[in-house]
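During the reporting period the student researcher (J.K.) took over the structure-prediction task from the postdoctoral fellow and processed the backlog of single-chain submissions. One of the processed entries is reproduced below for the supervisory committee.
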Amino acid sequence: MEDTALQIRKIGNSVGVILPKELLARLNLKEGDKFYPVEHPDGSLRLSPFNPKHARTMEIARQVMHEYRDTFAALAK
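J.K. obtained the following structure tokens:
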């Protein structure tokens, strides 16, 4: 896929990028799915079905649940 260039095209009143079916298959995406652009410090852009903000939120939630596990266990009784 490194040699594949994507082009921004007019789609109705908007612009968009048409993704080749091979790329959609590699990302395990289909029409209607969401994917996220992830910018890197070197200026590159990564498209991923993985949401880094959601992952960070879940990591914080795991930390809180671990820290207060005794409290949650008592509340669950």
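The committee noted the following: The CA atoms of residues 37 and 47 lie 5 Å apart.
J.K. will present the remaining backlog at the next meeting.
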